[in-house]
Amino acid sequence: MTKLHCISLPTPFPVGPVNVYLAEGEPLTLIDTGPKTEATRAALSQELARLGHNLADLKQIILTHHHVDHLGLAGEIAAQSYAKIFAHPYNLPWLHDYASTRKHHAQFYRGFWKQNGVPQELIERMLYLGEALTQFRDSHLPVQPLPEGREIHFAGCDWSVYHTPGHAGGLICLWHAQSRTLISNDHILKNISSNPILEPPMSGEATRPQRLRDYLREMNRMAELNPQIAYTGHGEAVRNVRELVARRVAFHHRRADAILSALGARTMSLWELTQELFPALTNDADFFLAISEVQGHLDLLQNDQRIVETFHGEKVLWKRPT
Q1: Is 160 helix (H, G, I), strand (E, B) or coil?
Q2: Domain of residue 83, CATH code
Q3: Which of 41, 48, 65, 172 is within CB 3.0–4.6 Å of 53 for a Cys-Cys bond?
Q4: 102 in a domain, yes or no?
């Protein structure tokens, strides 16, 4: 895929650099943009210049999901280039009205974490962390929807859009069947398992999505395509997709077994189980990710009828069925 260039950009986040992709040809396309920082902006401009382009040349921006390390520069790039921006419809609330959407998520997290035993001081710190991400992106982006089933043209060919929720509810992968090339961004990463981020119910839904179950299902669906290569959102490309997915699925089932073992004959909260599984955590962002992951495994265990949800007042607790 000679017209597709991976550009690694610095971020201020623990995950490290983010990969964006320049697709040459008409329309000149950028897939993801990196966060809105001076270092990222300078690195992107430098890499585009090395390839014979500048920001104003871009005609199309495809956003794989709404996380700030992937879309922060989209607004200012579009303002310079008049490029059209595309993203899955599930991302539109984040892109059209970031402030209101973040507030809605914060209200959900506050209630969910409190109900699941997370200490109030940590709740406030994690909510502040989410608010601090605002500086790395624009509050409103003029975006056109890019749903599953749609094809979009870049790098000289048509690509199929796959909606692959898990790490994020609006995450997409892009697939070129003839070359068996997958742009998997954060859905399939070589060296780490993508965290299934806890999210509130979708608009019109009564229950929150179970993102780890989504993630495992969609990883298997992408593996069934049998990609020759998957271009990732962080780190190196993956060439053994089926083997990697099989290992990831097995890992998550082993983690679910470990949580069941930790539970034993006790009745425990999500927070108590998170502490038991990850006793060394000190970073607020890591607490957020760990709570999301443990809840994902509790969803797996509950769906398999290996644990049941119970309540002590308003507090949610988990135990093995009697």
Answers
A1: strand
A2: 3.60.15.10
A3: 48
A4: no
